[in-house]
Structure formats: structure tokens, C-alpha cells
Amino acid sequence: MPPIPFRVPALAAALALAGLTSPAGSQTPAQPAIRTAFPVTATYADLADLAVPARIVARAEVTKMAPLKPEQAPDVAPGHIRVYLEARTTAVLIGSDLGESLRFLADVPLDALGKAPKLRKTQVLLFAQAVPGRPGELRLVAPDAIIPATPEVEATTRSILTALVAPDAPPTITRLREALHVSGNLVGEGETQLFLATANGAPVSISILRRPGEPTRWGVSFTEIVDQAARAPAKDTLAWYRLACFLPPALPPQANLSGSPADRRAAAEDYALVLTDLGPCTRSRQPAG
Fold it and tell me: Global pTM?
């Protein structure tokens, strides 16, 4: 089916979406024989990256698409095209006062033939913010913040949104503030404590315990109490995401306050163990910023 003709009123509405005419280009790789404009599999981290800044998350069916001309979107990443989309709301996961008709811009990868994919009748999840004073117009939180609305993706997204609004929601990690290892009285005994800085100032600490003849174990605490009984977070949870996706890849030397060279090495080893146990923060798209 040929692309929908690009009408002047549609272009005017698209360009009125403040902040989306020059977003950072998406680095999502193009997919061969593409049916929709998205990665084959959205990971937990992909969905969390989009859900955290979103004020509106909705499932919608694309009803109309109009590609912008290259000169109207000169900043789009290679292999992508910016499109104006209209969609019909089919469910609202978060957000209020969202009408049935939606309009927004998105950057999507070209298909194997270098053409814009056909998106009409595609069910998608939108991660967006409202445009003040323009009912029905949305500003996506990232140029590629549309994901195929499969049952699995929607269920994962709902779990993330629920965790984000929980009273004990794990906060955003901004840096590893301090690390301290203290050796015990027995050979091979010791404890490393990691103290993390957060965006809202909430306390987060990680304790790693070494006991002779036992596997080293660790846990994270999201309270003022440094809890030796704390456990490591399960994979693909908000607590796991906060750690796996935002801790530095190695213990910063300036944060290591351990007294002796041996204790400093032990702290670095314990930190590496935490990262290994967490596993990689796998993404199929490039996070904004």
C-alpha cells in the first residue's frame, strides 16, 4: 500500500508538536523484511527507559501515517525516517484526559528496501507527555518511543508502572558514593559496604558478606538501615534495573575508602561480584541522553 499522501494540514499539526522537530536521533537498528517500525524484542531495560519519564502510556492503533520529507527532519539518524502518525486510543495504562484520537511524531527505521514501513492498523504502546493546550497531541519521550503492543510487552510495562508508583519504589541511582571493606578476625572473613547517591536523596546501600567456607553473598537495602539480611534483587525488576543499568562498570578508585591495599582490592572484587550477579543491562535501543 503506498504511503498516505502528505497533506499540508497534517504537516502543520506535526510541526506544532514542540520539541519533536529536532529530537536526538534513534539508534535502533533497521530490521530486514520489517512489518513494523520496532526492534523484534523490547527488553525490560528498553521499557523501563521509556516508562520512567513518561506521563502518558497508552495502547493505540495507528490509523494514518505521513512521512516527513528529509529537509523537514534533517537530524534523523541514518536509516530512519520521521513520520507523522495519527492513532486511535484502545487502552490507557497511565495518564488522564486522553481522548480517542492521538497525533504525534516518531522516528522509525526504513525497511530492507529503504522505504518507510507500513504502520496502519499496527497496535503500539506509546510513551509520551501531553502537549499543553493541544488536546490529542503527544510528545514522545524519545523519538522511537513506540513499541509493539504484544501481551508480554504490555504486561511487563504494567509491572514497571506499578513499581514506579509504589511507596517503596527504588530511586534513580546517580553515582556510587562510597565503598568500604573491613576484614574480619578470620582468614577470608570480611564485609564490603557500598553507599549509593540517588536523585531524590533516598538511601541505598549494598552489603557484601564473606564468610570462610561459604559463598560470598550480597543484598541491597533501600532504607536507612544497612541490612545484612537483605537479598539481591530478582532480574527484570525495577530494583534490578536501577542497579544493573546505572552502576558504573568498575568501582571508582576515588570512592574506595578502604584502609589497606588488601581491603581496597577486596572491595573492588566484591563490587565486581555484584555486577556479575546482576548480569548485563541488555537494550535493543539506545537510551536518550
Answer: 0.83
Q: SS3 for 63?
A: strand
Q: Where are the strands (E) in 185-230, listed by range? A: 190-198, 204-210, 217-221
Instruction: Output the CA–CA distances (angstroms, integers) from residue 34 to 40, 118, 189, in the order listed.
Output: 9, 9, 55
Helix (H) / strand (E) containing 278: helix 261-278
Max CA pair span of the chain? 77
Question: How many helices and strands in the chain, by DSSP H and E?
Answer: 5, 10
pLDDT value of residue 115: 86
Quote the CA–CA distance of 26 and 143 in Å, as a whole number. Answer: 6
Provide the 8-state DSSP code for 71: G
Q: Tell me the sheet residues that pair with 226.
A: none
Distant-in-sequence, close-in-space partners of 36: CB < 8 Å, separation ≥ 6: 117, 119, 122, 124, 148
pLDDT given for residue 287 in this prediction:
66
* CA neighbor of 137 nearest in space, from 285, 263, 24, 12: 12
pLDDT digits (tens, 9 = 90+) for 159-205: 999 999 999 999 999 999 999 999 988 888 999 999 999 999 999 99
Per-residue pLDDT at 288? 60
